[in-house]
């Protein structure tokens, strides 16, 4: 049997590599090929991310769309070996504002580990403003183009605030099959779609206490029917503030009724835009029948509104009725229950 000489003969370059070239040269050539492939892949990713797009020579106006920003980290294992840490990219401009990317190399949540990416506001000229931004965050897949991305809206203000998090499980990120970390290189990105200063106007913040407790104060008032002035209890503490009970016994301004009020004793010390949210009850005790007169309310106490209650808590006729048990030897007893629920602040 004869073989065709063109099919059986080896190409000259194949004979050279297999016969005449030492093994070390083959290894070096293979390594160079891998490095060249990696460089070409990175260049393709950079082009995909918009790095090589033609730059706009005109100055971008605030709110105008700009090209996506990419952040390549070559040698990511150096960061990972140092454990959980925070890293920031350089500053970039998008939609007229300056930004940075923040990377959490190891982010732990509910016992799981993630790689977390955030967008940070980095505009010193706008530190006293609130910036509303709509944007995307990316963790690029360098092999399959199956990128991890998250899009949303956030508000950036002068306090530390880094927006929402685009994250991926550490095991997936570190897997050789995912393409998120290829040849110890990873690429992150941000695309700010819209951004503008947000006029927040007047805002209100209510901070509620987690475990509010009530304080009950009892006040016995003598010679009630003989009084024609406003009567005031001694001060008592509840929820970190000082309080008093006020009663108006059968005064003309109350239309033949008993007026009962709760007042904050130190309201003048409150800031002008601070209000204390209080749940309270005022109870006139029926010492004979136990059929007490009790009213409950919730109010915001402030320097401008330091007292709340009821002008017509109970008719004076009912107060003086012997069968009702509210007056005994011209003495009545009032219980005040005060529970501070929280503090309301207007900005």
TrEMBL record:
Domain of life the protein comes from: Eukaryota
SMART domains found in the cross-reference section: MATH (SM00061)
InterPro entries the UniProt entry points to: MATH/TRAF_dom, TRAF-like
Pfam families: MATH_2 (PF22486)
Ranges where the MATH domain occurs: 66-192, 214-338
Chain segments annotated as transmembrane: none
Designated name of the protein: MATH domain-containing protein
Originating species: Zingiber officinale
